[in-house]
């Protein structure tokens, strides 16, 4: 294996491996960078700058690893940053024969559609040596949206996962179902709550997490039955683990519009939680491997709960061991080091 000594990672502004408090700013990047340091030197590790402009200071790096860069149009001076990336950075990296890696976390942006968002995706698909998708559906999305020829360098690699299986104890079941995380409209909370209310379902359900849109929060409240408790606030990690310990199942009701993978899914899974999720993206991949349950209709969720179905913990343990952050980092270095 050829060893690359230098790697530029985006986005990194505000992340400090020395200060654990910064972990919550972007847990995925924090852990990926930490693992990459076993195999490379991250040249912009100490930068506190945000945005893409600082890349010009690190052009000596061998690998340029981009995450969520297609969301540049929504950042401050987003159009200018997107143009700078498309017109200056990508052509320059190509001239310098740098290795580009891009993780395509979603099919589009959860924030909506913009012309430059799609254009950045297309240019990266054309120029990157390695495009990572954490769902097999990502390859289908690229083929359908941009054409089969653009799938050449797209690789399906599971979202990396920690091993927290021994850090949780099940004391008692207070809630039948737990839905957690920031509650955006694309997660389908309103439709689920309305279904529970209309079908007189009596299971105890907790929805824990911030509703960024007050109007959407009020819409959900308007159909909320008494057996659903909503805690509209940020849930700290320790409190979240406590909720895992008193919940029978974790539910993800995401709609298929943009989602490919979910950090919240992998975080829950790392603690050995029993998970029921919509049959889209990485949720479907994991169900196909027998790691979680899928539902096609909300009725399916309550059939699983009523039947008391459980995932074999041995399957999950093996999956976690195979898909660690360290294994993920090594796979990236091996892929970009190959001559293919």
Strand order in the largest sheet: 2-1-3-4-5-6
Bulk shape: globular
The number of distinct β-strands equals 12
Tell me the Rg in angstroms. Answer: 21 Å
The proportion of strand residues reads 15-25%
What is the mean predicted local confidence, pLDDT? 91
CATH class of the largest domain: Alpha Beta
Give the count of helical stretches. 12
How many domains? The number is: 2
Q: Kindly report the name of the CATH homologous superfamily of the largest domain.
A: Glycogen Phosphorylase B
Helix content: 25-40%
What is the SS-derived class?
Answer: alpha/beta
Biggest sheet character: 6 strands, parallel
Query: What low-confidence regions span 5 or more consecutive residues with pLDDT below 50?
Result: none
The first-to-last residue Cα distance is 13 Å
CATH topology of the largest domain: Rossmann fold
- Give the helices and strands as they follow along the chain: EHEEHEHEHEEHEHEHEHEHEHHH
Could you characterize the architecture of this molecule?
The chain is of the alpha/beta class. The protein has two domains: 6-160 and 324-337, 3-Layer(aba) Sandwich (Rossmann fold), CATH 3.40.50; 175-321, Glycogen Phosphorylase B (Rossmann fold, 3-Layer(aba) Sandwich), CATH 3.40.50. It has helices spanning 27-36, 78-95, 115-127, 137-146, 189-198, 214-221, 237-245, 263-270, 281-288, 298-307, 313-322, 325-337, and strands at residues 6-10, 41-42, 63-67, 99-104, 130-133, 154-156, 175-180, 205-208, 228-231, 247-252, 275-278, 293-295. The strands form two sheets. Strands 2-1-3-4-5-6 form a six-stranded parallel β-sheet, sandwiched between helices. Strands 9-8-7-10-11-12 form a six-stranded parallel β-sheet, sandwiched between helices. Helix 1 packs across helix 12 (325-337) and helix 2 packs parallel to helix 3 (115-127).
């Amino acid at each position: 294996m050829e060893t690359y000594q230098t790697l530029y990672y985006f986005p990194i502004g505000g992340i400090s491996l020395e200060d654990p408090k910064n972990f919550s700013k972007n847990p995925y990047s924090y852990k990926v960078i930490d693992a990459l340091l076993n195999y490379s030197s991250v040249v912009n590790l100490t930068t506190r700058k945000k945005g893409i402009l600082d890349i010009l200071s690190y052009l000596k790096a061998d690998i340029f690893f981009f995450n969520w860069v297609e969301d540049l149009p929504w950042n401050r001076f987003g159009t200018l940053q997107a143009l700078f990336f498309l017109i200056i950075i990508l052509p320059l990296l190509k001239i310098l024969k740098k290795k580009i890696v891009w993780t395509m976390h979603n099919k589009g942006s959860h924030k909506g559609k913009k012309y430059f968002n799609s254009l950045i995706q297309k240019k990266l698909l054309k120029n990157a040596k390695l495009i990572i998708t954490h769902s097999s559906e990502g390859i289908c999305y690229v083929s359908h949206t941009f054409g089969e020829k653009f799938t050449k360098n797209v690789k399906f690699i599971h979202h990396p996962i920690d091993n927290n299986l021994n850090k949780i104890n099940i004391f008692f079941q207070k809630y039948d179902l737990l839905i957690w995380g920031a509650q955006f409209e694309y997660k389908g909370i309103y439709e689920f709550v309305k279904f529970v209310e209309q079908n007189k379902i009596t299971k105890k359900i907790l929805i824990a997490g911030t509703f960024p849109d007050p109007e959407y929060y009020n819409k959900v409240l308007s159909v909320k039955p008494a057996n659903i408790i909503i805690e509209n606030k940020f849930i700290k990690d320790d409190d979240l683990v406590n909720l895992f310990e008193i919940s029978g199942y974790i539910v993800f009701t995401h709609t298929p519009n943009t989602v490919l993978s979910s950090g919240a899914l992998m975080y829950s899974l790392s603690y050995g939680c029993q998970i029921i999720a919509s049959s889209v993206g990485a949720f479907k991949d994991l169900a196909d491997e027998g790691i979680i349950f899928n539902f096609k209709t909300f009725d399916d969720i309550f059939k699983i709960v009523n039947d008391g179905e459980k995932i074999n913990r041995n399957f999950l343990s093996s999956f976690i061991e195979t898909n660690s952050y360290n294994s993920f980092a090594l796979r990236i270095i091996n892929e970009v080091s190959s001559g293919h």
